[in-house]
Structures are given as structure tokens and as C-alpha cells.
Amino acid sequence: MKLIHFLNSMYGWVIVLLVVLAAIGSYIKQAIPLNLIVAVVVCSVLDLAIKKVLKKSFRFSASAFITGLIIGSVAQFQAPVWVILVASVIAIGSKYVIRIKKQHIFNPATLGLLIALLLFSSGDEWWSSISFNLGGYSILLTPLLIIPNYKALKLGVSLPFLLVTGVLFAATTYAPLTLSAGGAIDFLYTLPFFFAFIMVSEPKTSPYLLKEQVVFGVLVGALTFGLLLLSVKYYLLISLLIGNLGFVIYKNYLQRQS
User: Quick check: 53 and 18 in contact, CB under 8 A?
Assistant: First the structure.
């Protein structure tokens, strides 16, 4: 019963769907996702070790497991293993070091990835977000991540984010939207569903109140598009970390003063 309850939870859906996406992506590449496996193992073991030292507890952390899945799915499939190791260590370490009022500030996987990619001049590939061919049709599975997003009550973040980025993409030459079925499908393929449903709306670093969620999603979406137009590398990761910091400042200082 506990397993069934877990699988039907937000964490359960995230893990299952990210593993499925990674499995399909690996099948397409015809290679074992060693970096993803390393990221999951390092994040999970390190989180267990830190909890054992700080809290004298030894419990499996679904969030640490998911952090590893995200790192392994976003970094380049063939990235050097030390990129994954550094990203994983920084991601988990940041949860316990960069905190305010017993709450971590930044999305762990995003912070770990950005620092590691910058240090080693590596790239972000988002390889598990690619589509696959089924019976002559190109299938995109990342929109299914809306299920755990709904479970986490975070659609107020992800949907405004996607709406803003979609409108801005369509209104420019970046991803023009044509009035045809094929054009609409091609346009959908440009939207960052993985980023929206899993990273922007991460439960502990994004707002819970609906109004705050909408504002957060809109602002991160606008910032994402602005950084993209400026050709800023890692524009997705940077926009989210700025959003995380802005939300913490608002929640702990500006809102209290008002």
C-alpha cells in the first residue's frame, strides 16, 4: 500500500516519468545513460550521508533521487563524468548550506548544473526531452510531466510560464506559429515542457499561493525570453535562479515590510 501511495504521489509520478523519458532517450541514442546513473547514485548517497551526520537519520530522499535524474537528463549525454560529479555535489550541498529560515533558496539541480557547466565549459543538452518516432508519427512525451506538476499544485507556475514563453516565441522569429496542424505541432516542440513542469515549479523553491505562482511564472518566462534574445548561454538555468532569488527576497523582506 505504501508503494502504491508513493507511486501515485507527486514524487512517484516525477520519478516514473523521468525514468521513462530517459529510457526512451537512451534507446534512441543506443547507449546506456551512465551520466544519469552516476548523478542519481551520487545525489542519493550524498544526501543520505549528510542527513546521517546532521540529523542522525538515514532515510531515502525522493527529492535527491529526482535531483540526480534532472542533472543526468539536462547535462550532455556524453559529458565528462567530473561534470556530473561536481553538479551533483553542489546540488545536494546547496540544500544544506545556502538556506534561509531552514529552507534552501535555489533549485538544487539548476544551481549544480549551472556552476558545473560554467566550470568545465560544457553544454546543456536536455537529451531526454527529445521526441521519438512511432508508426511514422513523431511523439513528444514531456507534456506528460503535467501530471506530477498537478499533483504538486504548481500549475499556477508552469502554465503561466509556458503561456508567456509561447506568446513571446510566436510573436518573434524565434518560433513563429503558422496556422496549420503541422505548424502548431512544430511550435509545441519548441516549448520547454521539461523545464516548466519539473524545474521552474519545483515545490520548495517556487510560491504556493496562486497569485504569487502566476507572477513567478510570468516573470521567469519573460526573463527566459529576454536572456534568449541576448544570446545568454544557459539562459534557462540562469533565469530560474534569478527567479528563485527574487522570490526569497520578496517573501522574506519586501512582503514583510509591506
Answer: no
**Cα–Cα–Cα angle for 28, 31, 32, nearest 5°?**
120
pLDDT tens by residue, 172-205: 766 666 656 556 677 778 889 999 999 999 999 9
Rounded distance between C-alpha atoms, residue 216 and residue 219, angstroms: 5
In the three-class reduction of DSSP (H, G, I as helix; E, B as strand; rest coil), residue 126 is classed as coil
Using alpha carbons only, give the angle 205, 207, 210 rounded to the nearest 5 degrees: 155
Q: Supply 184's cell numbers.
A: 502548431
CB 209 within 8 A of CB 154: no
DSSP string across 1-49: -HHHHHHTSHHHHHHHHHHHHHHHHHHHHTS--HHHHHHHHHHHHHHHH
Buried b (16+ CB within 10 A) or exposed e, 119-151: eeebebbbbbbbbeeeeeeeeebbebbbebbeb
Q: State the helix-helix crossing angle for 108-119 and 62-74, rounded to 10 degrees.
A: 40
> What is the structure's pLDDT at 230?
93
User: Which residue spans within the chain are E strands per DSSP?
Assistant: 99-100, 103-104, 132-134, 137-139
Residue 144 has pLDDT above 80, yes or no: yes
C-alpha distances in Å from residue 213, one per residue of 70, 156, 158, 165, 202: 22, 5, 8, 16, 11
In whole angstroms, give the CA distance from residue 243 to residue 224.
10
- DSSP summary character for residue 142: G
pLDDT tens, residue by residue, 18-77 = 999 999 999 989 999 999 999 999 999 999 999 988 877 778 889 999 999 999 999 999
